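User: Predict the full complex structure for these chains.
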Amino acid sequence: MTVRVRHLAALAALVVFSLFPLYSTVVVASHDNADLARATPPLLPGGRLLDHVSELLDRVDLGQAMVNSAVIAGTVAVANALFCTVAGFAFARLRFRGREALFAVVLGSAMVPTQLGIVPVFMVVDALGWYDTFAAAIVPGLVSAFGVFWMRQACLEAVSDELVDAAKVDGCSLARVYWHVALPALRGPAAVLAMLSFATSWNEFSWPLVALDPNDTPTAQVVLSRLAGGYYTDYPLVLTGVLVSIVPVLLLFVLFARKVVAVLARGAAETGR
Amino acid sequence: MWTTRVRAPGARAVAPYLLVAPFFLVFGAFGVFPLVRTAWVSVHRWHLIGGDEGFRGLDNFRHLLGDPLFYNALGNTVSIFLLATVPQLALALCIATLLARRRPAWQVLVLVPNVVPVVAVALVFGQLLGRDYGIVNFLLGQVGVGPISWQAETWAAHLGVAVMVMWRWTGYTALLYLAAMRSVPRELYEAAALDGAGGWQRFRVVTLPGIRPTVLFTVVASAIGGVQMFTEPQLFDGSGLAGAGGSDRQFQTVAMYLYEVGFGRFDAGYAAAMTWVLFLFCAAFAATAVVLVRRLVSR
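Assistant: Here is the predicted structure of the two-chain assembly.
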């Protein structure tokens, strides 16, 4: 085999490895348990997917849970885009006392393994009277260190000091400099950040599991996990739930994929220096 | 200069702080404060809901260091972490090299697993690795192996959880490496080629040292992710034992044990002590990784 053919074979194997679990989810979700129990399990999609979707929606309130997830993740996405861009703008283009030290705190905070703090954070949220409210699920994720870091980077690249100074000489207030100079240049990166924040929040499992009453207003992930619990797992039904619940993130990903890859590439170039 | 020319110095001087305030408020309330609070709780007997039940000194820590369930969970975590991370980083390096001269569409494809929610990944792999009707055992059966009881046997369960982690993160890591490789100066490769270095030597002498900071970043990031590993093992066993990590706790991770202690037994004092010990582990690991990777990839 030539080097070229070997490379293509390796790439093909990679794509199969990346996509096979998703394909097999479709296969299992579109068959009945009886088909799965045959000596040779089905390898092609069957015809029962729509039946399973309607059975699923009858049995658990995945629809309501997905609405809850969308409200939580949507708020987190908008808040991150807003708070991270203004903070990134301040760190990149405004001069103030303690700027370097404060930014060091932002970077350092990214190294704190937050999920380990699940018990103490729960105690804080409970003391605030937020248990089983959307606030409990939303507020801790309103703004992220990585977001601030990224948006500072984007601002350094897209918004020059000269531009900010010129606007200032023209008598622009800080708010107008931000709105008319910085924000238009940051729209792309901010949209990617919003998309990534949405996906992260949508995918969150352990925090909503403890912060929300599972019988009251759970998120899509919590409902899915409960669907699989118990002594017997009805896989066609469970994987139908998986398919339904990943549709929003996959759609977002398809829309934003190229930009996400570009952002990742830039973030890595930064840590790589 | 920005601040010297303003007409309303008071407002302008405060503005930058207002802009960065949301981050520090959230980080303070849900990062720093809980961490400090945890230290206080850890030296008390403390019910998660009921609250303080009296000072206990270092009892929680003493108990923890003699707790076989803690060591079991710690061992499982380290085992799964190594099984997931070592092949993942090596594979990611290969994939990054493969993707180096390809169109962006390929990069998008390898990123797909990363956007699939962890819960979904765990449920899908739970089905793929099912003992009786799973496709993996079916394929292994075709070549005369098995059937393997992926949830019941310790090594198989660790491998199963590790594969989920690998599936989700390898493409992502590869993209980070790819980006770092692109920032290695081209002249270094040309110089190495002039010195007669072959492909592998160029990789070892130029590429690896060039992307060292990114390698270090991924090692530390996966370690922090590894310590927090919860959802994949929690949902791996769908048979009603979820939470304990199998009938014999053979794949219970420290994050699962932390959850069991905190939200199963409501023993916040003990959970707080465990949280602090794990934080210290993370810090120690990060420090060790920095030193090790410097040594390994310095030449």
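Strands of chain B lie at 44-47, 51-55.
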